[in-house]
Amino acid sequence: MHQSLIAYIKDHSTTPLTETDIAVIEEVFAPKKIRKHQYFLQEGEVCKYAAFIVNGAMRWSCLYFRCDLSIQAIFSCVSINPVIKSLVPASFNSPANLLMFSLSLVTMLS
Known about the structure:
The chain is of the alpha+beta class.
């Protein structure tokens, strides 16, 4: 399962991965499954994880509130191989204004 993440990093990096780098990736990223309609991140939570989607699809959207209207804007539907993380860095310790949930059974490394 880690091979798809390692291949993705190799394809998008200008620096080659060493055996030590690969060992760290395999140690840090653990496999995780998310059922359909289960949340990876909900609005108001602090994002503490990044994830790499191996299989499945996630929906990433944001809620806007204006007067008495609440509007949900869908930023993207992501599928195999993108890295997902909140736009608010975890170092800020700020709650996210995003919703990330699965559209199907998702297998990821997180």
